[in-house]
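thoughts on these tokens:
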Amino acid sequence: MTPRSRGTLSRVPPLNLGNQQPRTPLDVDQAWRTTAPRAAETVLFFDFDGTLAPVGDDPTAVRPAPKVLEAIEALAPAVRRIAIVSARPVEFLRDHFGGLTGVDLYGLYGLEHSHSGGETVTEPAALPWVPTMAELADLARTELPPGALVEYKRLSVALHYRTAPQLAGAVEEWGRAQAERLGLRMQAGRMVLELKPPVDQDKGLVIGEVIRDAGAAWYFGDDVSDIKAFAALRARAAADPAFYGVCVAVANPETGEEVASAADLTIDSPAALGDFLTQAAHHLR
């Protein structure tokens, strides 16, 4: 399916820094044609869950959508860099993308990263929180009601209630209490609440750093944490009119409206994104 262009919006999108309307052309082919001359200076950023892969009841069983890996492999030689920026740990991302050349992995909202198959580097300020997160995961498994799924990620703990949506209030109340008790930060997502260290790192900061000397960048995301990444592209475009940034939302029934309102383009699903990227590879070659 072809992506739906947001085009000219009726109001300024949230976090669209500088109060500027999206600059992306209405025609998607034109957007790629505008990117093509800058391809060697272009970075393509992707969230994982809900963007490159459909969200599933069991986070450990999630796999990239059809055509995604092949498309990324085809795109990598055509651009400066491809980066996966995810709430997942780097080791999880490495299992799916580690065989691809020229792909950087940013895990846990940037608390750890690996460049093109290299070693995993952890943000030093987050390391002292590893024992706290392990203890928190054990406590969550003991105290949360049956149906809540606890995902331990070494530097964060995700509390999922997708299979038991009636537990949303209980999970959020418990998570809020633990965040206050331990001095943690909370990140809400699609039927999940994540508790993480009080370290200044998020997707927006990752993207802002990587694109400092880039000529263009596209960011593909589906959840509220991705809006900060959109904002980083807006900020760079506001500071440098020669920079070309495109914010792409992947639709979903939970946070899709909020994310799409901050984007330039909306794509129907991770499966549709696989087709979209396959076409993009032809444009950039």
Q: What stands out?
A: The CA atoms of residues 29 and 213 lie 25 Å apart. Residues 1-25 have pLDDT under 50 and may be disordered.
